[in-house]
Amino acid sequence: MKKFCLALLIGTLSSVAVIAESETWLSIGFEYGSFFEHAADSVITTDSYMASPGIALSTYGFLNRKNVGFFIHSSYLFPTNILTTINGTTTDIDLGIYDLLVQVGIIIGPGFRYSFNKNIKLHYGIGLSFLETVANYSSYSSYYGTTISYAMFAFNFGVGGDIGVKYDVSDIIYLDVGTILNYDFKNYTSIASSFGDASSWSNRNYRMISFRPYICVGFNFYRSKEGLGKPKN
After folding, report:
1. Bridge partner residues of 129 (DSSP)
2. Are 157 and 189 in contact (CB under 8 A)?
3. What tens digit of pLDDT does each residue of 211-228 get?
4. 79-110: buried (b, 16+ CB within 10 Å) or exposed (e) per residue?
5. Is residue 169 domain-resident?
6. What separation in angstroms does the CA of 148 have from each of 94, 99, 140, 151, 198?
């Protein structure tokens, strides 16, 4: 999915660049994700919290100076804290058991902007959201009397939104501060080990909500009838 996110961003920039008149914003920076997950069935109720900082990569595109366009936001996150509560008992997960733990997410949909003045703009968008979590870890099994290695893959589906404020430091460089909001309603998880494999889809009592504030540095790309560069009016 990481390669897909990068390919989608590059492809989008390339296609917009050939349009007669276009404006593209591309930014990269720091993002801090807080994830709240809930799952329940007739026997077990599980609530989890995950803190996950990482890298944000985002683009907005507008054609013919319109205020309606598209946006793509991708996240590359590395969890640092996980708390899990199962039937009322809370456990602080030891992340030392993980050899690999990473989240890769993408939101794509229509994007909008509103100009407060020449240099300050509000931007926002809503779209489909996808989040992939990959983990490799080891855990001792008292049943088997040995340490077992696991490979986990989880995929979340939902809707997500972005809202932020963009400040143009110059015609080329800008600063961007905002937050990503996510609501995931479906999850697929697969776990493989030397003792067997298991996979499952979440039931209707599943949800995951995330808040992911970010701060980024970005670059403006313009193409107009006047040639490359910011339009004169």
Report:
1. 107, 158
2. no
3. 999 999 999 998 876 555
4. beebeeeeeeeeeebeeeebeebbbbbbbbbe
5. yes
6. 16, 13, 6, 10, 15
H-type alpha helices, 42-149: none
Q: 233 in a domain, yes or no? A: no
Question: How many folded domains does the chain comprise?
Answer: 1
Strand partners, 209: 36, 183
Expressed as residue numbers, the domain containing 21 is 2-228
Residue 219 lies in a domain: yes
Q: Say which CATH number the domain at 180 has.
A: 2.40.160.20
Q: What values do phi and psi take at 197, rounded to 5?
A: -120, 155
Instruction: Tell the burial category of 15 from Cβ atoms under 10 Å away from its Cβ (0-12, 13-18, 19+).
Output: exposed
- Residue pointed to by tokens 């599980």: 46
73-132 pLDDT tens trace: 999 999 999 999 999 898 998 888 888 999 999 999 999 999 999 899 999 999 999 999
pTM of the model: 0.84
